[in-house]
TrEMBL record:
Pfam entry (one): UPF0227
Record Gene3D superfamilies: alpha/beta hydrolase
Species whose genome carries this gene: Anaeromyxobacter oryzae
Name used for this protein in its record: Esterase
Record InterPro entries: AB_hydrolase_fold, UPF0227/Esterase_YqiA
Organism domain of life: Bacteria
Length: 214
């Protein structure tokens, strides 16, 4: 299975997901794109663990081997999954959200933490096009996951030098810690939508041993 994991507050309809799915379909490769926060209140009740569980159930139900393309939080979760599951052979990580808990926590004041705990954190939910309140369980769960997952499989990382969400230097540090990883810098921000041609070309070549399509 070639699996795509979307980012925070996103979903299967994201521009990157659909663009890559269409391009892979054109060369005969199916890209599976699940909703990692399914259900009416799936986003509000979500956590890194719950999102990872959706992905891992799909992987367990499909015949190995597997490869994953992940964007932002989905990229981070793909790295966590690969550290746990030997059936995952390759990763393509776009601006993977390493240092997940640390990055969120250092932005919060004590008052903001209490407000999130009491009322939820209101954020723009891009997939539904409306504001939604994320429960405190997301932050509490994120605390238990590693800043830099230990990945041992071939990994392609693509990161924007102008990313103001996940700093480029954080992704570069993950790659420096991961001997099997290669970093492709692009002149782009976090969404990487201006770099889709580069992303697809790099991903197609990198995944050729898995897909059988060059």
């Amino acid at each position: 299975m070639l699996l795509y994991l979307h980012g925070f507050a996103s979903g299967p309809s994201s521009k990157k997901a659909q663009a890559l799915a269409a391009r892979f379909a054109a060369i005969g490769v199916h890209l599976e794109i699940p909703d990692l926060t399914p259900g009416e209140n799936g986003f509000e009740a979500s956590s890194p663990s719950s999102m990872l569980a959706v992905a891992e159930r799909l992987l367990a139900a499909a015949a190995p081997p597997h490869a994953i393309i992940g964007s932002s939080l989905g990229g981070y979760l793909a790295a966590v999954a690969a550290a746990r599951d030997p059936s995952i052979e390759r990763l393509v990580l776009m601006a993977p959200a390493v240092r997940l808990f640390e990055r969120w926590d250092r932005r919060l004041t004590d008052g903001e933490r209490e407000q999130w705990r009491a009322r939820g954190l209101e954020v723009e939910h891009f997939a539904s096009g409306r504001r939604r309140r994320l429960g405190w369980q997301f932050h509490e769960d994120a605390r238990g996951w590693p800043a830099f997952p230990e990945v041992r499989v071939p990994t392609l990382c693509i990161a924007g030098r102008r990313d103001d969400t996940v700093p480029f230097d954080d992704v570069a540090e993950f790659v420096a810690r991961t001997p099997t990883a290669r970093l492709v810098p692009v002149d782009d921000g976090h969404e990487l939508v201006a770099s889709l041609d580069v992303i697809f070309a790099e991903a197609r070549a990198f995944l050729a041993p898995f897909t059988g399509v060059r």
